[in-house]
């Protein structure tokens, strides 16, 4: 039931500089915390967080599990920030369409916070050398975390697509999921590449988490349009033919990094388990 207000996810631009420092510092803390041992190649807890996503890549993209699993993943991320790094501030989200047309100018990509977003050169990005995450390495591919904006992709991130996915291509949950995943979501991944453009290991770039809060906001906005959507879900939980149905009992896993949960536990964000909403949806 809607109403939980313990955690209000706030747009990046509404946070004070100190709140932004706190959030970025907590992510940096995860990159320095020792791993739990779920993956032998990890040097940090953050490496294992990336590994969890990469190992399930084919199971969490291109099907209706996409939105519930990534909401669960954001919950795991938040719990790690709190439990491992003492984070106690608001979780920010990025209303990406506010920066459409000039993403590199956003102070997200400043030296104080997430580091620069250069333009791609011959399709290639540049290793991240400034900001809180300068020198960060994608341990799975043993490559530097790199960015290079491809404007032909980022220029297509629009309010229009938000509205289409909320309305005419959002009559059912599978329609909404398909629209959200393939429109602004995919374009931002490709447009910020190359690390973000790699579907499996894209969380190696910490800006992933701001981006996926935006994706989750789209789903939450859609859910709020009809209260029945807080409790019901449909579609496919896997890619078998016929597929296993996606239900409230479908399990969501982080491969031992955090406890498994069910779709029912995260479906209503304002329920007892996750207890959050977004600042412009109150």
UniProtKB/TrEMBL annotation:
Limits of the Tyrosinase copper-binding domain: 205-216
Pfam family, one: Tyrosinase
Keywords linked to the UniProt accession: Copper, Metal-binding
MF term (GO), any: metal ion binding
InterPro entries assigned to the protein according to its UniProt record, in alphabetical order: Di-copper_centre_dom_sf (IPR008922), Tyrosinase/Hemocyanin (IPR050316), Tyrosinase_Cu-bd (IPR002227)
Gene3D superfamilies reported for this sequence: Di-copper center containing domain from catechol oxidase (1.10.1280.10)
Protein name: Tyrosinase copper-binding domain-containing protein
Organism: Microdochium trichocladiopsis
């Amino acid at each position: 039931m809607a109403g939980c207000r313990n955690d209000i996810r706030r747009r990046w631009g509404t946070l004070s500089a100190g709140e932004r420092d706190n959030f970025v510092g907590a992510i940096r803390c995860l990159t320095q915390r020792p791993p739990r041992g779920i993956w032998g190649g990890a040097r940090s807890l953050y490496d294992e967080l990336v590994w969890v996503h990469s190992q399930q890549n084919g199971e969490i993209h291109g099907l209706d599990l996409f939105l519930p699993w990534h909401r669960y993943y954001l919950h795991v991320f938040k719990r790690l920030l709190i439990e491992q790094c003492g984070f106690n501030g608001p979780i920010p989200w990025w209303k990406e369409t506010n920066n459409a047309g000039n993403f590199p100018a956003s102070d997200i990509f400043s030296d104080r916070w997430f580091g620069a977003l250069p333009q791609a050169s011959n399709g290639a990005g540049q290793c991240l050398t400034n900001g809180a995450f300068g020198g960060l390495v994608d341990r799975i591919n043993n490559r530097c975390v790199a960015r290079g904006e491809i404007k032909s992709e980022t220029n297509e991130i629009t309010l229009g697509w938000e509205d289409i996915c909320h309305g005419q291509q959002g009559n059912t949950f599978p329609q909404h999921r398909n629209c959200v995943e393939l429109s602004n979501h995919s374009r931002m991944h490709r447009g910020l590449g190359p690390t973000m453009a790699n579907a499996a290991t894209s969380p190696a770039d910490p800006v992933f988490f701001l981006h996926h809060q935006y994706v989750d906001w789209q789903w939450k906005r859609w859910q709020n349009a009809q209260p029945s959507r807080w409790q019901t879900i449909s579609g496919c939980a896997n890619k078998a033919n016929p597929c296993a149905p996606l239900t409230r009992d479908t399990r969501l896993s982080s491969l031992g990094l955090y406890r498994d949960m069910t779709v029912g536990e995260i479906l209503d964000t304002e329920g007892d388990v996750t207890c959050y909403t977004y600042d412009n949806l109150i």
